[in-house]
Specification:
Pfam families: HTH_17. By secondary structure, the protein is an alpha+beta fold. It is about 45% helix and about 10% strand. It has a domain of about 50 residues: Molybdopterin biosynthesis moea protein, domain 2 (Alpha-Beta Complex). The longest helix is centred in the last third of the chain and has 15 residues.
Length: about 80
């Protein structure tokens, strides 16, 4: 059987998970991680949970609440 060099089609995008990493949040907002950490230090970032390994996670519901608050403040 010969290969044609074609790649397998990409699967459909994954459904949003319940938790976001800092990288995922920053990608969604198109901001640098340093901006996120600055917001967090000033109490302006979404509520985070610190894992035993030191990583931060943000509940998607908290992220959505954060975005809704920003949207409301913009008007």
């Amino acid at each position: 059987m010969s290969t044609t060099g074609k790649k397998a089609p990409k699967s459909a995008p994954a459904k949003p998970r319940g938790w976001l990493t800092v990288d995922e949040l920053c990608d969604e907002l198109c901001i640098a991680k340093s901006t996120f950490h600055d917001w967090r230090a000033k109490g302006r970032a979404p509520k985070c949970v610190k894992l035993p390994n030191g990583s931060l996670r943000i509940k998607r519901a908290e992220f959505e609440k954060f975005m809704s608050a920003l949207e409301g403040a913009a008007w």
